[in-house]
Every structure is written in structure tokens, then in C-alpha cells.
């Protein structure tokens, strides 16, 4: 919800796996690589589901690439910030598994899990000449917010 709260008030575009919004000084690109659960789990079969193996009930899905071209962006350099949540970072469940799935958790482990559960962050600059190109690749179950200063 933290990433969704950054959505701008104007919808620019939407499609399969993405939507783009804008605010006064920023463009927000929201991306996701959704994976639906399999037919067994659909009918409440939990054979492949354990406390530490939650992903076995989802259909296999490949990484998904996005190539977005934003037109009408002022020429020059723009600050691009990427926030990601997925199995390799930002997921409290996956961080808990990587910690050894401790139960019960100590206060120190809870603090560590909170620290590890924030979105993965990267900042870069991009050059625009009326057209700004943004590329991203998302693993299954991953979501990403890309913000661009305008």
C-alpha cells in the first residue's frame, strides 16, 4: 500500500501489468508480474502448501519485460527512482524464510525483519529529448514503482 499511495491524480495510461499516473512534478509508473494460483489450489487442495513453501501453489510464470516510452517529456536529465518488492527484496515473507523462519520471533528478529522488508531502492538519471524510454524486467510476483521527476 505504501507504493500505491504514491499514485498521481491523473491517469496517463494503463494496460496489462502496468498503469501510469502523473502529479504536478512527477510521473509514476506502476508495474507488476502477477501469478495466478494453480487449479489444485483453486479447489482448496493444499498439498503443495506449507508454512515455508508458499509459492508452489502458483502457476509457473516467466520474468516479464516492460519497454515504456513517455512522449512530451521536457528535454534534459530526469531523476528516476525505482522501488521494488519481490522475492529478492522487500518481501517480509521471503525475508522471514531467509532468516530461517524463526518461531516465535525475538524482538531483535522482529526489528531485523522490519528493516529487511522495505522496498528495494535504486536511483538513476535518464536523458530525454522529447521522448523518455524506461525499461524494466520483473520476476514473477514482483511489483515495481518507477518515479520520474518532470
Describe this protein's structure.
- The protein is mainly β.
- The chain has one domain: Glycosyl hydrolase domain, family 39 (Immunoglobulin-like), CATH 2.60.40.1500.
- The protein is 14% helix and 44% strand.
- A six-stranded antiparallel sheet has the order 1-2-3-6-4-5, with no helix packed on it.
- The longest helix is centred in the last third of the chain and has 10 residues, at 107-116.
What's the overall average pLDDT, rounded?
95
CATH architecture: Sandwich
Q: Order of helices and strands, N to C?
A: EEEHEHHEE
Instruction: Kindly report the CATH topology.
Output: Immunoglobulin-like
Number of strands: 6
CATH class: Mainly Beta
Give the strand order of the largest sheet, numbering strands 1, 2, ... along the chain.
1-2-3-6-4-5
How many separate domains?
1
Structural class: mainly beta
Using only C-alpha atoms, the radius of gyration works out to 18 Å
Low-confidence stretches: none
Q: Mind summarizing the main beta sheet?
A: 6 strands, antiparallel
How would you name the CATH homologous superfamily? Answer: Glycosyl hydrolase domain, family 39
- Overall 3D shape: globular
Distance between the termini: 24 Å
Helix content: 10-25%
SSE blueprint and pairings:
Blueprint: E1 10-15, E2 18-22, E3 26-32, H1 39-42, E4 64-85, H2 92-98, H3 107-116, E5 120-138, E6 143-149
Antiparallel strand pairs: 1-2, 2-3, 3-6, 4-5, 4-6
